[in-house]
Amino acid sequence: MLIAARAMSAGMKVLEPILAQTGVKPVGKAVIGTVKGDLHDIGKNLAKMMMKGVGIEVVDLGVDVSETKFLQKAEEIGADIVCLSALLTTTMPAICDTINSFKEAGLKDKYIFMIGGAPVSSDYAKKVDADYYTPDAGTAAEVAKEALLKKAQ
């Protein structure tokens, strides 16, 4: 899977300039990162590559990303989607903290919130008021694109 992700990344580096020249516009923008306290990024990287593959412009914030950094970057780039990843059960509360920081700023409804990671579930997504939970990178890309197309209507 990692080899495929690297191959897709290399392919996207070749395709992105060509798509830009042909006037193909991204279907939307996303910020993605692994939440504060978590240094795992394999799943996040796969989700990023898959989202790019379906035409979403993705800004990767990396790992151990604070609530403030998610909020600032989403506002800075005019993101449509905020993607939060956690691999550890001990860092899952940071997903809730991040979504709550957007609520406190009065910006929660401006964005689509997607969460994922091994310990995360659809029940947890409901609990923290995330819009979507997806179990894998491929599904994340499909759901993100569908959500963006729905939002554009």
From TrEMBL:
Its EC number is 2.1.1.13. GO terms for cellular component: cytosol. GO terms for molecular function: cobalamin binding; metal ion binding; methionine synthase activity. Residues 27-153 form the B12-binding domain. Signal peptide: none annotated. GO terms for biological process: homocysteine metabolic process; methylation; tetrahydrofolate metabolic process. Keywords: Cobalt, Metal-binding, Methyltransferase, Transferase. It comes from the Bacteria. This is Methionine synthase. The gene is metH_4.
